[in-house]
Amino acid sequence: MPSSIFRFKAFAIEQEEVAMKIGTDGVLLGAWAEIPERTKNILDIGTGTGVLSLQAAQRTSGSAHILGVDIDRSAVKTATENFKNSSWSSCLTAKEWDITAETKTLGTRNFDCILCNPPYFEGGPVSSKRERNMARLASYMSWPILFERIASLLSDKGVANLILPFESFDKARKLAQDNSLFLNRYCLVKGHKDAPVKRVLMSLSREKSEVIKEEELIIEVARHQYTKAYYDLVQPFYLKL
Prior knowledge:
- By secondary structure, the chain is of the alpha/beta class.
- It contains seven helices and twelve strands.
- The protein has helices spanning 24-32, 51-59, 73-84, 130-136, 143-153, 169-178, 228-234; strands at residues 5-7, 12-14, 41-45, 65-70, 92-96, 111-116, 154-165, 182-190, 197-205, 213-218, 220-222, 225-226.
- A hairpin with a 4-residue loop joins strand 1 and strand 2.
């Protein structure tokens, strides 16, 4: 029987009880996200297994307090266990939180870095498992509310980082601007050089940059043969790289 544990270089993820397992999107965001210097508080919205929080803990060497929140109680339980079993248990906390609730329930409105890999599928088949639908379907995390909450929770010099489908790039950028958040850096992600752009990584802040940093990331040269850029980005995390 295959193990439900996904092992990274510096931590392990138990994922049996969560709806969405470890995937490329989350690890990419955790590796690419901008974490400002001297960051004290990090918020991981929709933490799931807690992988983004653990990547942030590794990147900051445990110097920041990291809060992972999720609407799914079983995900919070799983993330809590993964946090306890890591080298940074003292700086990691998981909490059940509904994004439609008041932000004051999180105990702070001053996060220096926010990470979010939100559910974004629209339409398509609906699972019989509510937890899987919450993890996958955009209807369970209203994007207008999401960007409103990010804006209300981000510190003045903070940075919010997201990964989204490329076709949602303009919509997300508009929602960000509606909440006085501006795109400072983004990365277009392709499976290989001839493939269409599938994902976009975004960094947002309250400060409007005169020059927006544009990046492109191609994952593979051939099947299971990774580009140097992708390798260099995720190599600190993946066990077999």
